[in-house]
Amino acid sequence: MKSSARVLLALVTVSILTACGSDADSVELSEAGQEGRSVVRSKGCASCHGSNGDGGVGPAFVGLAGAEVPLEDGTTVIADRDYLVESIVDPQAKIVAGYNLPMPRTELTDEEIDAVINYIEELAEVEP
Prior knowledge:
By secondary structure, the chain is mainly alpha-helical. The chain is built from five helices and two strands. The chain has helices at residues 3-20, 31-42, 46-49, 81-89, 110-122, and strands at 68-70, 76-78. A two-stranded antiparallel ribbon has the order 1-2. A hairpin with a 5-residue loop joins strand 1 (68-70) and strand 2. It is globular. Residues 3-22 have low confidence and may be disordered.
C-alpha cells in the first residue's frame, strides 16, 4: 500500500472512531488540560491519537498516564511524565506494541509538550 493511501486510511479510521465518542468527551479539564487538548488538535496529534484522546492509528491518551505500556520489543514501561516526554520528543525510542505506523517527530515547544502531558494526565481516569 502506498504511503498516501495509508495516510488516507488512517485519517478515515480516526474520523470514524472519533465520531463514536467516549467518556473523554465530557471530561471537565483544567485550564492546563484545555490548553493541552488545544495543542493536540491544532498540531495534528489528534489525527492519530483522536480528537478526544481516544486513539486510532496511534495509542489512546485516555487512561495512559500511570499505566503499564507494552512495547513492541516485548518489554513494558510505566507511562510516567519522563516516558511521555520521551515519546513526544523521540517517538521512535519506545514503540508501543501494535502501533507500527511511525509517529513523526514533532516541532512542539517545551511549553506545548508540557500542556499535552497535562492533558494526557487529566485523561488518566477516563473510561475508554
